[in-house]
Specification:
- This protein is mostly helical.
- It has one domain.
- It is 63% helix and 0% strand.
- It contains four helices and no strands.
Length: 67
C-alpha cells in the first residue's frame, strides 16, 4: 500500500476557496501566500508518505476487531 497526498487538490482549495491571495494582504500575514502554502504541503506530504504511511501497513492488512 502507498499513500499519495492530493497536493494539487489542496492547493486548489487554498487558492480558490480560501482565497489565500486576499489573506496575504492582511497585516501580519504577508508571508502566507500560495508559495508558502505549497512548500508546507509538499513537506507534510513527504513526511506522511515516507514516514507515517509505512508504519500502519500491519494495521491496514489486519485491522482490529471486537467480538
Amino acid at each position: 500500500m502507498s499513500y499519495t497526498a492530493p497536493i494539487k487538490d489542496m492547493l486548489f482549495d487554498i487558492e480558490h476557496l480560501a482565497n489565500i491571495g486576499e489573506i496575504a494582504k492582511l497585516p501580519g500575514f504577508e508571508d502566507a501566500g500560495l508559495e508558502t502554502a505549497q512548500a508546507v504541503l509538499e513537506e507534510c506530504a513527504r513526511f506522511n508518505q515516507d514516514v507515517v504511511a509505512p508504519l500502519n501497513i500491519a494495521g491496514d492488512r489486519n485491522p482490529s476487531s471486537f467480538k
